[in-house]
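Standup notes
- HV: blocked on the assembly model, inputs below
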Amino acid sequence: MPIFFETEPATGTKLAVWKIEEDEGFFSSRVPLQRTITHPHKRLQHLAGRWLLQHLFPEFPLDLIRVADTRKPYLHDEAFHFSISHCGDFAGAIASRDHRVGIDVEIVSEKVQRIRHKFVSAGEEQALDAALPGQVLEQATLLWSCKEALFKWHGKGGLEFREHMTATAIQTLPGQAVETRFAFTKERPVDVDIRSKLFPGLCVSWIATPG
Ligand SMILES: CC(C)(COP(=O)(O)OP(=O)(O)OC[C@H]1O[C@@H](n2cnc3c(N)ncnc32)[C@H](O)[C@@H]1OP(=O)(O)O)[C@@H](O)C(=O)NCCC(=O)NCCS
């Protein structure tokens, strides 16, 4: 059971990251596939994400998951708020009965450098450089991962990453953890904190807010 990372961001809110080492049969015997996914690895990632929800909460009603037009998965009765992410051989999930949540699992790669101009503002460049000096790829990946987690937490789409989410404070914490405060201004402006955990070559970011 290769749980790679597990934490409880708030009471009753659980998060886990799984390193996928199993083949599809392991997951498909335990998890319903609710839509056709032709690419085998994407199908494996999808199944692993769903499976993790039941790992976090054995009573999680996987059969009742619906998918919105925005592609956000949800439960009609909101018995759980949840969010899923996958990247390479990793899958992550966060779920809660009473917190709104978002998660992103991101492999550190050059990809983020190519799209950096689309999501990093000048002020964020400076703040990141001060917090994580000399780690350009990790910095960019961390910020991208935080903004993807925020995107999923918001869940309604229509966000401009540079305009609606601005990192205003970055704090490094023990254990390769980082907390980033964001001004989120899509609707009524709010400050939200995103926690990230850095592993060699991998970044996991999540948000959980009451309500
Ligand atoms: C939705 C999005 C965040 C998914 O990210 P991704 O890198 O493709 O994949 P991840 O593995 O991290 O996440 C995929 C999971 O997110 C969830 N998801 C998909 N759309 C979602 C949405 N609109 N809201 C919340 N969650 C969503 C699903 O659970 C999906 O997994 P599943 O299909 O197996 O259930 C991404 O496709 C996206 O649209 N990002 C915003 C891009 C953007 O607006 N950029 C502008 C500035 S550059």
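- HV (later): unblocked. Residues 46, 49, 70-73, 83-87, 104, 115, 118-119, 148, 151-152, 155, 157, 159, 161 surround coenzyme A (CB under 6 Å). The longest strand covers residues 190-199.
- Next: hand off to the docking folks.
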